[in-house]
Design brief:
alpha/beta, 5 strands, globular
């Protein structure tokens, strides 16, 4: 299987508000940057979308390492929270529903296709790829915001 490295970041101007994500895929010497946004969203949704966008770009099963500055995303997958939420009919506990279930469903389908390991990186701490993803996400917010005016 191909070994792919994916860096991701999501951002929001207001929460909720206009949001964007940035994703960088690296395979050997090859590099691809993608981004997108929504007019009304949350930071967490954009963090999840950044991962989904990267994984959806892959056209065959791959061995993927994802770097994200979102504890929400990394912990939900690596600690098994998202699988538990799904098993409990998308409830975090007996009283609280899980959020962003539409995106988590998409991600879980992709995680079943690829072998994926998540790693948390500290945001805004000088990691060059994470900083670039943040810039892509912010540019996507600007694009979405301009489209609304």
């Amino acid at each position: 299987m191909r070994k792919i490295t994916i860096y991701t970041d999501g951002a929001c101007s207001g929460n909720p508000g206009p949001g964007g994500y940035g994703t960088i895929l690296i395979y050997g010497e090859h590099r691809k940057e993608i981004s997108g946004g929504e007019a009304q969203t949350t930071n967490n949704r954009m963090e999840i979308m950044a991962v989904i966008a990267g994984l959806e770009t892959l056209n065959q099963p791959c061995n993927v390492t994802v770097y994200s500055d979102s504890r929400y995303v990394v912990d939900a997958v690596e600690k098994g929270w998202v699988n538990r939420w799904r098993q409990n009919n998308w409830m975090r506990n007996k009283k609280e529903p899980a959020l962003n279930t539409d995106l988590w469903e998409r991600m879980l389908e992709l995680l079943a296709t690829h072998t994926v390991t998540f790693h948390w990186v500290k945001g805004h701490a000088g990691n060059q790829e994470n900083e670039r993803c943040d810039k892509l996400a912010r540019e996507a917010i600007n694009t979405v915001s301009k489209e609304q005016t």
